[in-house]
Every structure is written in C-alpha cells, then in structure tokens.
Amino acid sequence: MRLLGALIGLAAGVLGAAIVLTAYRRWVQPWQHRWGATDEEVWAAMPGDELVPAAASTTRAITIAAAPEDVWPWLVQLGYGRAGWYSYDWIDNDGRASADHVVPELQDLQIGDQILMGPGMGPAVRAMEPNRYLVAGDREGGSWCLALNPAAGGTRLVSRWRVRWPLTPATVFWVLLSDPGAFVMERRMLKGIKARVEGAAVGSAA
User: Fold this and answer.
1) DSSP character string of 33-56
2) What is the pLDDT of residues 126-174, one digit of tens each?
3) Any idea what DSSP says for residue 96?
4) By C-alpha distance, which of 76, 94, 74 is closest to 86?
5) Are the CB atoms for 192 and 161 separated by under 8 Å?
6) For the chain, what percent of residues have pLDDT higher than 90?
7) Contact assessment for residue 65 and residue 150, using Cβ atoms and an 8 Å cutoff
C-alpha cells in the first residue's frame, strides 16, 4: 500500500491472498489431507466414521517397523498432561518433552476418558479395541480414529479425522487458518511415534 497507494495496494494484497489460498486449496490441501496414506486407506471405512456422517475426512498414515501390540502402548498414553503428543512440545505440551518410553501408569485409558489437547480441552474416548484402534470425539467436535493395521514390514498407523463445519465465512476462515498447522503437528506426531517405537525395538534387541 505504501508503494502502490492505498487502493491499488489493497487490491494487490487481496489478489495475492486469493491466489495463495486458491493454490493451497487446489494442490497443497489435497496432498496434506492424505499424507502417507494409500488410496485404499483413504477410501476404506474406519471405526468412528459413523459418529460424523457425510463429513469432510482427513486420512494420514505411516509405516512402523514393529507389531501392532508394540505400537499400542504409545497411543493410549497420548495427550497433554500424559505422555505428550510426540510432536512440537513447545507448542502442544507446555514445553515439556513428550515421553520417550512407555509409561506403565498411563496404560489405563478407558472409554469416557478425555484425551487432552490442552488444559480441560480434548475429545473423549468413544471406543477402542486394544492393538487395533482408538476412537475419540463426537458429532459436534468431530471424530478421530487411530488404527493399527498389520502390513508388510510391520504396522500401518492410520489417523483419520472427520468433521462437519457449518459453512460460514468464520468457519471457512478458521479452517484455512488452522488446517496447515494441524497437518504440521500431526505429521510430526506420526513420525514421533514411529521413531519412539522403532527406537524402543532396537534397544530391546540390543
């Protein structure tokens, strides 16, 4: 605006923002919404899908060189105030390092317990089958499923989020603002789980 003048500068800024958002929506968002996942995993039904029918779905996945029963303990201890999120701890765990080992006293997760994402905030566990899947959330806030599928080379850890936002300018703005951040954090989380599980397996073997 200083270089081009108020009106032209404002128009140029709006146009630039529109171009960036369009590029993100068309190319970047579809890629990050299915990061690491196969076509089969993206389209397959998962536990918890029924909680939020006809909803937008995000499916991400990673291969872990370990059996499902070796990955499961790291999932049930997830959460703020528990073992952390294995992601960027300075953002989502008050700067405390996420656990680098399985914590026996955090293995008692039950249906109805909250998986905290911050103080007093987080989805409640709705269903789980040890060594197979964990489902949290509800129709209003969205659902989240972490599933463990045996595969060649170990286990596929598949994460699916489903949410149905009302279509308003405010929610569109919020989704565009939060969507890239959610991807960055979850990608780090999946990689963090993989590194910890495989590191523990190497340590046990040694």
Assistant:
1) TTTT--HHHHHS--TTGGGSTT-E
2) 999 999 999 999 998 899 999 999 999 899 999 999 998 766 666 556 6
3) P
4) 74
5) no
6) 67
7) no
Q: Which residue has the tokens 């397996």?
A: 201
Which token pair is 200? 């523990």
**Could you say which DSSP state residue 93 is in?**
S
Q: Report the amino acid identity of residue 38.
A: T
DSSP label at residue 168: -
100 CB neighbour count, 10 Å cutoff: 13
The Cα 110–Cα 118 span in angstroms is 19
Question: CB under 8 Å to 104, separation ≥6 — which residues?
Answer: none
Q: Which of 115, 200, 202, 203 is nearest to 159 (CA)?
A: 115
**What six digits make up the tokens of 73?**
């303990």
78 exposure class (CB count in 10 Å sphere: 0-12, 13-18, 19+): buried
Q: How far is CA 88 from CA 52, 128, 184, 190, in A?
A: 28, 26, 9, 12
